[in-house]
């Protein structure tokens, strides 16, 4: 689902996206979108909302498995648009974004990217 915006020198590429779904009785909605512009890449949450929980982190994973995933850091907020840097991340290795509570080891939400 790659699409481009802008001139060739400053092209913005939307390479993958997926919709969030809640897990383990939690609610979630919105989109996860991978956006690249030149050498800069980031993960964008758009129209995002998830059940609030303790110490939620954002992971890029393969098949939703956080043990082999990459922790992008703490969730910036349970509601609203937000961005997470993906510079240096080999995106071919990951297909699912996961919101995970570290202290309670609970999956709150995921978005499968296509």
Structure description:
The chain is mainly β and 114 residues long. The chain has one domain (3-112). 0% of the residues lie in helices and 61% in strands. The chain has no helices and 9 strands. The chain has strands at 3-5, 12-22, 28-37, 40-50, 56-62, 65-74, 82-85, 96-101, 106-112. Strands 1, 2, 3, 4, 5, 6, 7, 8 and 9 form a 9-stranded antiparallel sheet that branches. β8 (96-101) and β9 (106-112) form a beta hairpin. The protein is globular. The chain starts with a strand and ends with a strand. The mean pLDDT is 92.
SSE layout and pairing:
Elements lengths: L2 E3 L6 E11 L5 E10 L2 E11 L5 E7 L2 E10 L7 E4 L10 E6 L4 E7 L2
Antiparallel strand pairs: 1-2, 2-3, 2-9, 3-4, 4-7, 5-6, 5-8, 8-9
- Please work out how many helical segments DSSP would assign: 0
Helicity range:
under 10%
Parts with pLDDT < 50 across at least 5 consecutive residues? none
Overall pLDDT, averaged? 92
Total strands: the figure is 9
Please tell me how large the radius of gyration is: 14 Å
Note the run of SSEs as H and E: EEEEEEEEE
**Shape category:** globular
End-to-end C-alpha gap: 7 Å
Strand proportion, as a percent range, falls in: over 45%
Largest sheet: 9 strands, antiparallel
Main structural class: mainly beta
Number of domains: 1
């Amino acid at each position: 689902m790659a699409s481009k915006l802008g001139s060739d020198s400053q092209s913005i590429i939307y390479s993958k996206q997926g919709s969030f779904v809640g897990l383990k009785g939690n609610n979630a909605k919105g989109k996860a979108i991978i956006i690249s512009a030149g050498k800069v890449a980031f993960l964008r949450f758009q129209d995002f909302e998830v059940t609030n929980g303790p110490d939620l982190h954002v992971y890029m994973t393969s098949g939703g498995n956080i043990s082999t995933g990459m922790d992008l850091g703490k969730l910036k907020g349970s509601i609203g648009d937000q961005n997470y840097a993906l510079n240096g991340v080999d995106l071919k290795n990951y297909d699912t974004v996961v919101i995970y509570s570290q202290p309670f080891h609970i999956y709150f939400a995921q978005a499968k990217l296509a």
